[in-house]
């Protein structure tokens, strides 16, 4: 058994398969899940695990070269917006409907238990060298 890092075997395996440019959607419990991408559903109950907890864990494991979120996040969920804008200075903001369209092209979707609106971000994988 792993001592540290991500213990969920489905998530750890999916992360190991990602390559440069692959998309990873980290989403709240209400985000529609498109057919196609691999989905790791971590939602246990409302708010558990939180968007921030899952994002922290993923960022410890991934190299991210870009991120996209819904522009509605600024008004509907200012705490999540501040977190994402602080973490990703070049954060791209698009209409929520566009984010849903883009999520269909993600390689992996990680669903959190987050119950606050617009706690969603599409990460674009980078390389470590």
Would you write up a description of this structure?
This protein is 32% helix and 22% strand. With 129 residues, it is α/β, with parallel strands linked by helices. It has a six-stranded mixed β-sheet.
Offer a concise description of the structure.
By secondary structure, this protein is of the alpha/beta class. Helices cover 32% and strands 22% of the residues. The chain is built from five helices and six strands; from the N terminus they run H-E-E-H-E-H-H-E-H-E-E.
SSE inventory with pairings:
Layout: H1 9-16, E1 23-27, E2 38-41, H2 51-61, E3 64-70, H3 73-76, H4 78-87, E4 92-94, H5 96-103, E5 108-111, E6 121-125
Parallel strand pairs: 1-5, 2-5, 3-4
Antiparallel strand pairs: 1-6, 3-6
Key features?
129 residues; 5 helices; globular; 6-stranded mixed sheet; single chain; alpha/beta; 22% strand
Q: What form results from the Cα inertia axes?
A: globular
Enumerate the spans where pLDDT stays under 50 for 5 or more consecutive residues.
none
Number of helices: 5
Name the helix and strand elements from N-terminus to C-terminus, one letter apiece: HEEHEHHEHEE
Largest sheet report: 6 strands, mixed
Termini Cα gap: 28 Å
- Taken as a percent bin, the fraction of beta residues is 15-25%
The value of Rg in angstroms is 14 Å
Main sheet: strand order: 2-5-1-6-3-4
| Helix/sheet category | alpha/beta
Number of strands: 6
Compute the average pLDDT: 95
Give the helix level as a range of percent.
25-40%
């Amino acid at each position: 058994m792993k001592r540290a890092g991500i213990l969920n075997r489905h998530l750890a395996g999916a992360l190991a398969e990602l390559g440069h440019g692959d998309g990873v959607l980290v989403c709240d419990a209400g985000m529609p899940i498109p057919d196609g991408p691999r989905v790791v559903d971590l939602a246990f109950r409302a708010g558990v695990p939180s968007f921030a907890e899952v994002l922290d864990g993923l960022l410890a494991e991934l190299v991210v070269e870009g991120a996209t979120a819904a522009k509605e996040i600024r008004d509907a969920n200012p705490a999540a917006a501040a977190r994402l804008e602080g973490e990703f200075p070049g954060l791209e903001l698009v209409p929520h409907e566009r984010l849903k369209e883009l999520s269909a092209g993600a390689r992996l979707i990680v669903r959190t238990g987050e119950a606050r609106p617009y706690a969603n971000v599409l990460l674009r994988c980078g390389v470590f060298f």
